[in-house]
Amino acid sequence: MATIDVYDLSKNRVGEMEISDTVFNCDVREYLIHEAVKVQLARRRAGTVAVKNRALVAGSGSKPFRQKGTGNARQGCKRAPQYPGGGVAFGPQPKIYDPAMNKKARRAAMKSALSLLFKEKRMTVVNAFELERISTKGFVKILGGFDMNRTLLVIDGTNHNLELSARNVKDVKVLKTEGLNVFDIMKYRSIVFTQDAVRKVEGALES
Residue-wise over 16-28: b if at least 16 C-beta within 10 A, else e? Predict the structure, then answer.
């Protein structure tokens, strides 16, 4: 099994831990990562954009003038697209964006994303991330000690002080293990796990 150093919040090495090769040190399949991100972003789309066609525009359905004898091209009604205030021809209509990706592929994509960060040494493990009080300044100082930017923090369970301290810091996001996803893993430059979070992620992805 692969091993990774464990640090405290002062960036002192306090030990090391073994991590699962099947989760954090497997083959990186970039096409699955791409597919998972594409699916995730597609499902965020509301698909509610819509315009009125000639059937939905309010107005008379009668002919604007008689069919023959005027010298003009024949017209059906004033709600046609060529008239001001008429319906839109071939405009967008509501659509459901729900591309499919099976469970096995989703898990493989997650493992590939985590393995990519581990192999590129962009993954850090801390023994715990407990803050004595809510302090954005104190939180930023801790991250500065690790020399990190664009950081994703993955924790196990609720951590009130950490979540409130980090919520206004640019390019930092705190996620519980249940909310870990491929898009956020790839979006941020580095990822920080607590030891308990590592074990929980392993348990979810190995089962």
Answer: eeebbeebbbbeb
Q: Which one-letter DSSP state was computed for residue 89?
A: T
Helix (H) or strand (E) holding 2: strand 2-7
Specify the fold of 2-45+101-206. Ribosomal Protein L4; Chain: A; (3.40.1370)
Q: What backbone phi and psi angles, to 5 degrees, belong to 92?
A: -70, 145
What ranges do the domains of the chain cover? 2-45+101-206, 47-96
Angle at 153 between CA 150 and CA 154, to 5 degrees: 145
Model confidence pLDDT, tens digit, residues 91-113: 999 999 989 999 999 999 999 99
H and E: helices and strands count for the chain: 7, 6
pLDDT in tens, 108-142: 999 999 999 999 999 999 999 999 999 999 999 99
Spatial contact of 135 and 114, defined as CB atoms under 8 Å apart: no
| pLDDT band with cut points at 50, 70 and 90 for residue 206 | confident
Distance (Å, whole) CA 169 – CA 129: 16
Q: Which amino acid is at 156?
A: D
State CA 195 to chain mean position distance.
24
Q: Which two tokens stand for residue 1?
A: 């099994």
Exposure pattern of 40-55 as b/e (b: 16+ CB <10 Å)?
beeeeeeeeeeeebbe
